[in-house]
Amino acid sequence: MAALLAFLQRARNSDLSYSFLRSPEALIGAAVLALYAMFALFAPWLATQDPFDPAALNLMDARMPPAWLEGGAPMYWFGTDGQGRDLLSVMLYGLRVSLIVAITATVLSMVIGVTLGLFSGYAGGRLDNFIMRVADVQLSFPTILVALLIDGLARTVLPKEIQEQVAIWVVVAAIGLSNWVQYARTVRGVTMVEQSKDYVNAARLIGLGKWRILFCHVLPNVLNPVLVIATLSIGMAILTEATLSFLGLGVPPTSPSLGTLIRLGNEVLFAGEWWVTVMPGVCLMVLVLAINLFGDWLRDVLNPRLK
Q1: Cβ neighbours of residue 180 under 8 Å, at least 6 residues apart?
Q2: Could you give the C-alpha distances from 113 to 123, 182, 199, 299, in angstroms and in order?
Q3: Is residue 69 exposed (0-12), middle (13-18) or buried (19+ Cβ within 10 Å)?
Q4: Residue 5 pLDDT more than 60?
Q5: Measured distance CA(81)–CA(70) in Å, rounded
Q6: pTM of the entire structure?
């Protein structure tokens, strides 16, 4: 207990905490992210309706406007969709799906990119040239196009009977495999600088192996830029997943994300049912904005040139 209190006291008095508490953008971004995380985590308890339970749906309540408009019902704050589902409840579950996909895909791309960047920067030679040429080729295509290609190939290879069951993991793989390049190039550059420093030379002199030097000594010194990229990449992953879902290639309708809800709402937008697409769209916009605000602060505070 004493150790925990001492750690919290050091964290409170650190430069990072000082900068965080004096940055309105970081405070707002962190507060919104915490709120969204709570909504996603406790969605089954916060939602007034289980949108995946047909017995809980009433088609007579379909396409009702938000509660503050004429014809709205107090129980449906954001209105209902064409199936009579409470839009707020669907958004809570959709937010959970979007965050799970984005975070998992970001972790996947980070692991791949950091590993390849370490090997490329430390080994050099042909391995370095090969990895960087692959990265250059991938950079010549837009990220969404690479994700579409990977998603399409997976749907072609996998049997149709299991495609819906693994659809979320296909989207995770598509986004993760399309975003590793920025990690690899950044880590490669930092690794090439770090490997020539005295602490690495000292580790070689005392007989430490290459793998231990790479992962125990070099890796901790390249994490700062990786954390910044990962934070900002979560927002891009959310947008990529929303784009794939909007195009009908993302998560299945049985596990709708915010992108799926926007696509479904777009189909009835010109019928006057604007809330079905506007509400998830605003939710998505605020989420990505909060991530970018927090990521910009983290980039500034971890950049030694700005201190």
Answers
A1: 109, 110, 112, 113, 116
A2: 15, 7, 24, 19
A3: exposed
A4: no
A5: 16
A6: 0.85
